Amino acid sequence: MATGQIPEKIYFKIGEVAKLVGVRPHVLRYWESEFPTLKPIKSRANQRLYRRTEVEQALLIKSLLYQQGFTVSGARLKLQQKQSLEQVKRESGSLDGIILRLMLVRDRLRAMQEKD
User: Fold this and answer.
1) Rounded to whole angstroms, what are the CA distances from 22 to 7, 63, 76, 105?
2) Mind giving me the DSSP string for 43-73?
3) Nearest 10 degrees: CA dihedral of 11, 15, 20, 21?
């Protein structure tokens, strides 16, 4: 199932996620123990409630395991690498902004120095 086919809801019960992903609920519970990024919240009735991002994560895990042939540990490593890459991209974006501001300050200081 494609990400665009996930219904517009805030929370999904484990049975709904199992149908969307195409696995049994016990598989999702197992994946929760193996993949730290797959952590649904629990309701007062102790039911697992998955957010859209976790449904997307489950779809990605299924793809890695079933279509791409990764082992569980290999899929976990791949997801960790993906998260690290995304973090680097976010940090580099903010670093670019900081560098730009520092360059502007440098240019202003040089301009002030040249006036004297």
Assistant:
1) 15, 11, 20, 55
2) -TT--EEE-HHHHHHHHHHHIIIIIS---HH
3) 110
Name, in order, each residue with C-beta under 8 angstroms of 62's C-beta and a sequence gap of 6 or more. Answer: 21, 22, 23
Tokens of 58: 């489950």
| Domains along the chain with CATH numbers | 3-82 (1.10.1660.10)
Hey, which residues does 12 pair with through a beta bridge? 50
Instruction: Report whether 11 contacts 50 (CB < 8 A).
Output: yes
Which has the higher per-residue pLDDT, 105 or 61? 61
Higher pLDDT, 108 or 27: 27
Read off the pLDDT of residues 75-99 as tens digits, 9 standing for 90 and up. 999 988 888 777 777 777 777 777 7
Asked if residues 6 and 52 have their Cβ atoms less than 8 Å apart, the reply is yes
Give 23's DSSP letter.
S
For residue 97 the two structure tokens come to 């902004």
Measured from the Cβ of residue 40, the count of other Cβ atoms closer than 10 Å reads: 21
- Return mean pLDDT, the chain: 88
